[in-house]
Amino acid sequence: MSNFKIIVANWKMNPSIFEGIELLKSINQSIVRKKISSKIVICPPSLIIRDAIRIFSNSSISVGSQDCHYAQIGPFTGDLSYKMFEDIGCEYSIIGHSERRANHFESNKLIFEKLNSLNKSKIMPILCVGESFDEKNSGKASEAVIRQINESGINELEFKQKIIAYEPIWAIGSGKTPTKDEIMTIHGKIREKLNSKPNSNNIKVLYGGSVNVENASDIFSIKGVDGALIGGASLKQADFIKIIESVKI
Ligand code: 13P
Questions:
Q1: Quick check: pTM over 0.85?
Q2: Which of 126, 210, 239 to mutate to test the pocket of ligand 1 (most atoms within 8 A of CB)?
Q3: 163 three-state secondary structure
Q4: Which of 19, 28, 29, 150 has the greatest CB tally within 10 Å of its CB?
Q5: Would you call 97 a catalytic residue per the annotation?
Q6: Alpha helices, DSSP H only, in the chain?
Q7: SS3 of 236, please?
Q8: Calculated CA dihedral for residues 121, 94, 186, 172, nearest 10 degrees
Q9: How far apart are CA 38 and CA 228, in angstroms?
């Protein structure tokens, strides 16, 4: 597996339930017919995760949640526990996405609780980190990212594989991306930080934020980019498949 990538689709709160099920089916059909060397993970809205698992039952596509609660069960109205996702067959969970940090006030301490619980499960977390526009403009991008990594406590936990998604907040949904050098530098710093602990040799650093058909191949070719976390473009079947195919084998 010379150029093994992990390509994660984060559908967020899209599309409608019925369109989502059709999209799952059409992604499955197109991937079954192709030789894909990357690991593909689809994170649809929670209400269609079981449909996704059923639809992908004969394929190598994995399913993930977009978040989870750290408790197994309990008085947490509206939440879904990591154990519930594990029980229905989710293999991955996006943790600490900037939209959850912003809209649900998720702190690094809460993110640690989630990682800690996932560490006791079969689910692999995909920890999102990324700087704001102001942090970027004041030259503090890597400082902000490393602080999130430190405070999330991921280095204290022994995951089989650590997956970090570097998603600059200003790049999400904006059509803007950092330069290749900027991505390479931050990915290098993330890897260095995680490598500073023993037993952390299996590290994957994904890039996320306005990945599309036009820039995917360039992004995948950057040193230290082990894959991508894709929002908008993962909702268009043809684009998503083209992005997957743009990984040079
Ligand atoms: P876009 O690909 O739409 O910029 O979203 C990125 C993202 O937030 C994925 O988690």
A1: yes
A2: 210
A3: strand
A4: 28
A5: yes
A6: 17-32, 49-55, 82-88, 98-103, 108-118, 133-137, 141-152, 180-195, 216-220, 237-245
A7: coil
A8: 180
A9: 11
Query: Which of 94, 164, 172 to mutate to test ligand 1, by most ligand atoms within 8 A of the CB atom?
Result: 172
Letter for the amino acid at 3? N
Q: Give distance in angstroms: CA of 244 to centre of ligand 1.
A: 15
End-to-end Cα separation, the chain, in angstroms = 9
Domain boundaries, the chain: 6-245
How many C-beta neighbours within 10 Å does residue 17 have?
11
Per-residue pLDDT, 2: 54
Low-confidence residues of the chain: pLDDT under 50: 1, 200
pLDDT for res 234: 98
Q: Say which CATH topology domain 6-245 has.
A: TIM Barrel (3.20.20)
How far is the centre of ligand 1, averaged over its atoms, from the C-alpha of 50 (Å)?
A: 23
pLDDT of residue 195: 74
Rounded distance between C-alpha atoms, residue 32 and residue 29, angstroms: 5
For residue 197, the model assigns a pLDDT of 61
Measured from the CB, is residue 96 less than 6 Å from ligand 1?
no
Burial class (CB in 10 A: 0-12, 13-18, 19+), 1: exposed
Query: Measured in angstroms, how far is the CA atom of residue 173 from the centroid of ligand 1?
Result: 6
